[in-house]
């Protein structure tokens, strides 16, 4: 009994001790940065992938000089008439800056990021213009969906064949 409990305790501690580091989030690797002046605030915009491609998930980080502790704001991404706006919130995996986690831009083109930041030095607005977003990587979306349905049709064919073979004659 004592050996069993000791073995279970050792197994449990190994399981939970080794699982904790494996379940940690990957850090945000910033590979490119741009500087934006938003009124009195200098903001560093970081990108986890460069160059940007449409429909490709990436992380954006926004780091004003002096930190985010006493500041708030909003970012609006626009391409022509299309606009997407969000309040600036802490990045979930890089808590010392604002950010957008696993975010993608839906279309290629020249995007604009407009920042409005409120803080002790007042309110400031700035823009990062002509942010080039290239075409979506990989094959066209329709072809990708068509290829991905091939296993579904194979499964349906397998079920039909199995059903016909196991059916009892009347």
Automatic annotation (TrEMBL):
Stretches that traverse the bilayer: 142-163
Keywords tagged on the record: Membrane, Signal, Transmembrane, Transmembrane helix
Signal peptide limits: 1-24
Name the UniProt record assigns to this protein: YtkA-like domain-containing protein
């Amino acid at each position: 009994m004592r050996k069993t409990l000791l073995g279970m305790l050792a197994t449990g501690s190994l399981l939970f001790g080794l699982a904790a580091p494996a379940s940690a989030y990957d850090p945000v690797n910033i590979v490119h940065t741009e500087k934006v002046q938003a009124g009195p605030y200098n903001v560093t915009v970081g990108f986890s992938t460069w160059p940007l491609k449409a429909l490709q998930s990436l992380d954006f980080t926004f780091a004003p000089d002096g930190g985010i502790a006493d500041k708030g704001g909003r970012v609006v991404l626009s391409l022509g008439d299309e606009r997407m706006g969000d309040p600036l919130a802490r990045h979930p995996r890089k808590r010392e800056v604002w950010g957008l986690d696993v975010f993608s831009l839906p279309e290629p083109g020249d995007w604009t990021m407009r920042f409005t930041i409120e803080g002790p030095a007042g309110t400031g607005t700035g823009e990062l213009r002509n942010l080039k977003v290239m075409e979506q990587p990989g094959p066209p979306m329709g072809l990708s969906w068509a290829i991905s349905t091939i296993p579904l049709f194979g499964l349906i064919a397998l079920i039909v064949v199995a059903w016909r073979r196991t059916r009892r004659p009347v």
